[in-house]
């Protein structure tokens, strides 16, 4: 029961974090574009994607470290916990040094790959400044956050992160309003990040006296890192290739259009990642480590998967009707026309295929099946790059999104089948049924949204229309899924009725 309470705390605090992050995510880009222009927004977005590729240096380490901590945490073995944390800390410090060197090198050459004329020194400095937040994380923050997640205390990390976001974003909004130099605006992030790290380390020092990094590192415990690395590299390629390709083959205004749509869907992906997958991941990790019987694992996963897909379907069905209005209201008066029905449909499809596979991903990661699935992950990245490069020359931004959709489509079926067959040891029929059911509902929603063409003239009207649609879709979609999942419905009602005894 305590584990369930911790999972709920993690989930609800994640929701709060994403609401705050989304609110600032809506305010800042519009304010930024009005002050500095769409081309500058495209430049910053492009640099951020380059920085995310540099983050490949640490790919696989966080998830391998977290997975390695499950067993000693469950056994209260502090010697093993500290040896793993010590190894993780040393890895991250080495990564930070390499990251800084590569940042300097990339900042020197990056300006030559931009199709538009930009100030060389300004761009070099901006690349370095935008990378500094990651550097602070590697030195002072990430190991501590991994430890707290292994203790099912992710909500502590989230509350500290909330403070960091609120303080840094408020300062940035003030600076942008006064049209302060862009480099100063982004210097705020690493400075506030240092204080965030101090707070998190202080919490661990007070509440976990047994934690120390001054023990012999257990590098063998992180042996799965190389396999997890391949997965995260592939994921990074699939999720971040689009902007890089658009930067090379189109122009910064097209990149800016992409980032405005991606802004909303990145927020949705983050909500799903933080609220669902990261909060639930340690829960399934503990079930797997404790080696409980397969029935408990299957039943827990069945309910998790059903609830997850229902929520995803509600969100995307609602967006089918209100996304284009949101884009029109948000970009009204800006220097580029951002509203595009085809883009809206493609982004909704991309979001669906990207996220519907996540329950299976959680199970694979919790079980530590990184090596067993790495070739599948590589194939997804290869499909994405090849199809995007082939299509971008003929279809531009649409081609890049189609390439991503094709890669995601392959991976959805692969993960659904693998997680059921090799981890749950059961048929994937139930999972695939729910995936198809969700896809049909979203397609029908897209069809009727095009016919009805609901238009909102103000944010207030848009909000109430969205609220009505969410309520309507919740009732209809929950009913449809329960009808097609009678067994899961009975199991859910049983757990609700007997929650105090579980």
Strand elements, count: 0
β content, as a range?
under 5%
Q: Report Rg.
A: 23 Å
Structural class, from secondary structure content? Answer: mainly alpha
Separate helix tally: 18
**Mean model confidence by pLDDT:** 82
Helix content: over 70%
Distance between the termini: 6 Å
Query: Globular, elongated, flat, extended or rod-shaped: what is the shape?
Result: globular
Low-confidence stretches: none
Largest sheet: none
Question: What order do the helices and strands follow?
Answer: HHHHHHHHHHHHHHHHHH
A few lines on this structure:
The chain is built from 18 helices and no strands. The protein has helices spanning 2-36, 38-54, 61-74, 78-109, 120-140, 142-150, 154-177, 182-207, 225-249, 252-289, 294-330, 341-355, 358-367, 370-395, 397-424, 429-452, 459-484, 486-497.
Task: Characterize the structure shown.
Helix content is 83%, strand content 0%. By secondary structure, the chain is mostly helical. α10 packs across α13 (358-367). The longest helix has 38 residues, at 252-289.
Attribute tags:
502 residues; mainly alpha; globular
SSE topology:
Layout: H1 2-36, H2 38-54, H3 61-74, H4 78-109, H5 120-140, H6 142-150, H7 154-177, H8 182-207, H9 225-249, H10 252-289, H11 294-330, H12 341-355, H13 358-367, H14 370-395, H15 397-424, H16 429-452, H17 459-484, H18 486-497
Helix pairs in contact: 1-2, 1-7, 1-10, 2-5, 2-9, 2-10, 3-4, 3-6, 3-9, 3-10, 4-5, 4-6, 5-8, 6-7, 7-8, 9-14, 9-15, 10-11, 10-12, 10-13, 11-12, 11-16, 11-17, 11-18, 12-15, 13-15, 14-15
């Amino acid at each position: 029961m305590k584990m369930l309470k911790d999972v709920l705390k993690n989930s609800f605090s994640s929701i709060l974090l994403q609401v705050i992050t989304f609110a600032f995510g809506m305010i800042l880009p519009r304010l930024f574009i009005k002050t500095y222009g769409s081309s500058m927004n495209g430049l910053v977005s492009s640099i951020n994607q380059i920085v995310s590729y540099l983050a490949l240096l640490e790919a696989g380490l966080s998830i391998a470290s977290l997975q390695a901590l499950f067993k000693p945490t469950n056994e209260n073995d502090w010697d093993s916990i500290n040896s793993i944390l010590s190894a993780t800390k040393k890895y991250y410090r080495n990564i930070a040094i390499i990251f800084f060197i590569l940042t300097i090198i990339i900042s020197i050459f990056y300006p030559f790959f931009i199709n538009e004329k930009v100030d060389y020194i300004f761009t070099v400095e901006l690349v370095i400044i935008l990378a500094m937040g990651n550097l602070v994380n590697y030195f002072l923050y990430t190991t501590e956050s991994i430890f707290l997640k292994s203790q099912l205390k992710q909500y502590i990390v989230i509350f500290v992160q909330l403070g960091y976001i609120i303080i840094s974003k408020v300062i940035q909004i003030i600076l942008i309003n006064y049209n302060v130099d862009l480099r100063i605006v982004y210097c705020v992030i690493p400075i506030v990040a240092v204080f965030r790290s101090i707070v998190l380390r202080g919490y661990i020092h007070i509440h976990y006296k047994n934690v120390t990094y001054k023990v012999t590192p257990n590098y063998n415990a992180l042996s799965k890192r190389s396999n997890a690395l391949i997965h995260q590299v592939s994921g990074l390629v699939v999720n971040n290739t689009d902007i890089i390709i658009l930067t090379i083959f189109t122009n910064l205004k097209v990149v800016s259009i992409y980032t405005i749509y991606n802004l909303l869907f990145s927020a949705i992906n983050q909500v799903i990642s933080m609220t669902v997958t990261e909060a639930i991941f340690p829960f399934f990790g503990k079930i797997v480590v404790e080696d409980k019987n397969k029935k408990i694992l299957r039943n827990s996963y069945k309910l998790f998967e059903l609830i997850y897909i229902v929520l995803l379907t509600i969100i995307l069905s609602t967006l089918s009707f209100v996304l284009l209005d949101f884009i029109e209201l948000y970009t009204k008066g800006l220097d580029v026309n951002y509203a595009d029905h085809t883009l809206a449909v493609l982004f909704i499809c991309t979001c669906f295929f990207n996220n519907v596979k996540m329950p299976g991903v959680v199970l694979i990661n919790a079980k530590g099946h990184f090596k067993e699935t790495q070739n599948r992950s590589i194939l997804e990245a290869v499909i994405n790059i090849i199809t995007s490069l082939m299509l971008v020359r003929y279809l531009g931004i649409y081609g890049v999104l189609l390439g991503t959709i094709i890669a995601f489509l392959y991976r959805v079926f692969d993960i659904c089948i693998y997680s059921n067959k090799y981890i749950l040891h059961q048929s994937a029929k139930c999972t695939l049924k729910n995936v198809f059911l969700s896809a049909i509902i979203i397609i029908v929603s897209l069809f009727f949204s095009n016919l009805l063409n609901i238009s909102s003239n103000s944010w207030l009207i848009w909000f109430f229309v969205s609220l009505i649609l969410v309520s309507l879709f919740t009732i209809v979609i929950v009913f449809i899924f329960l009808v097609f999942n009678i067994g899961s419905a009975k199991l859910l009602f049983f757990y609700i009725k007997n929650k105090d005894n579980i």
